[in-house]
Amino acid sequence: MFQNAARRFRRATIRTVVGTTVVVGGLEYTTRLPSQGRSSEFYHKLSDDFVTPLMRRLLDPEVAHQLAILLSKKGLSPIYHPSAAEQQITASQTIFGLTFSNPVGLAAGFDKDGKVIQEMLDLGFGFVEIGTVTPQPQPGNAKPRMYRLVEDFGIINRYGFNSQGTLAVKEYLEAFRRSATTTTKDAARDEELLNKFIAGLTRVYHWLLPPHRHQQGVIGVNIGKNKTTEDAAADYEYNIYQLGPLADFMVINISSPNTPGLRDLQTQGLEVLLARCLQARDELENRPPLLVKLSPDLSEEELQVVALTCRELGVDGLVVSNTTVNRPEILLSKHRNETGGLSGKPISSKSTECIRQLYRLTDGSIPIIGVGGVGSGRDAFEKLRAGASLVEVYSMMVYQGPGVVSKIRKELAELMMQHDKRRIEDVVGMDHEDIFWRRREAVQVQSRRHDTKMLLTETLDPLVEVDSKE
């Protein structure tokens, strides 16, 4: 009896193993899901070509936005899909003292309160800008307040800085910082535990469920004022004091069209506002770089004044640009005349031109983050050529899905190789030949001086040592 039971058990075990192997093998051959999981091309296509269009068709824009945050939080969003092209370039660079693993970031507006920072880094963003954050919680403007311009690949929103408030966002940031410091320890501990299992079982486990290591990146915090605040600078100062210690960089948002009077700060009292913000920043131990986000609707004269003010005060960077209140005549959507700020593909050229103007006005001395209609590697490449050191994405994810991040990185790398460029720095400002070559020459001179100094140090130190002995 026991022999029959043993034989039945062996046969059942063999059938289970063979069946599982066939199923998993078939999945691996057709989808790469077992080995690549959420980074597989299949998972990206499922998310971009099925889930995203379905959400766009069935759900209100704001509800779809909230669902996207929830899905990300639950670990269902794709993760970065590596490309061979990107391995052949140097995507990392150091801007205002921070190292960015790649130049593609998430623009403010998607993760307003900092709830899915890690999930967005895992998606492939080199940096994430959360916000806009206001000191006190506020609901924003009345709904509906977001519209898809599907025919134009654009978005109009009039959110009005809906925010959970500084203290709530501070808690989210603190939680993220705590988790980021323990990730490496947890991974090492998990690996140690796995090593206690039989070696073969461990290999099977990793093949069926490949371990996912969190990506690291730079975190920016975009800050604004409450709708009813009269002393705008006080709101920005408060946010800097509260959130600055947790941020890698901060963005002063004075260009949203959806808060009454906010855009006036770009031309009225800008110097006083920025001086107070910079002073508050300087009182922090970590002194995060301070950037200013500008409107694409400023006139050439206004851009000149802003550029001069930012240079004189020592602002660390510019974010160009916010949404526009203008409506190009080529718009086709029935929502084109809705009140609010227009973003996405319709403002791509306008924001790129604004970047080009500010790069020239600042002589390339202030790093620029380019925003507005970035949905392909070519969009990113054009903004880099115009003078941006980094680019940000948001609106185009509505139409192309979260996998657009991996796509942009891959296409950008391919374009760089086509132009015989291997570093991001070699692309930034290419459209400005005089500034481009002057700045490259300055970098080379500085490098030669550094090499000469090191050589002199190596030569003189032994002589000094001999003299001291004598």
Spatial order of the strands forming the largest sheet: 3-4-7-8-9-10-12-13
Structural class: alpha/beta
Q: What is Rg?
A: 26 Å
Counted by DSSP, the helix tally is 15
Mean pLDDT: 88
H/E series: HHHHEEEHEEEHHEHEHEHEEHEHEHHH
Brief sketch in words of this structure:
The protein has 470 residues and is of the alpha/beta class. Helix content is 49%, strand content 12%.
Description of the structure:
The chain has 470 residues and is α/β, with parallel strands linked by helices. The chain is built from 15 helices and 13 strands. The strands form 3 sheets. The protein has an 8-stranded parallel barrel with strand order 3-4-7-8-9-10-12-13, surrounded by 5 helices. Helix 8 (232-243) packs parallel to helix 9, helix 11 (348-361) runs parallel beside helix 12 (377-386) and helix 12 (377-386) crosses helix 14 (404-418). The longest helix has 37 residues, at 433-469. The protein starts with a helix and ends with a helix.
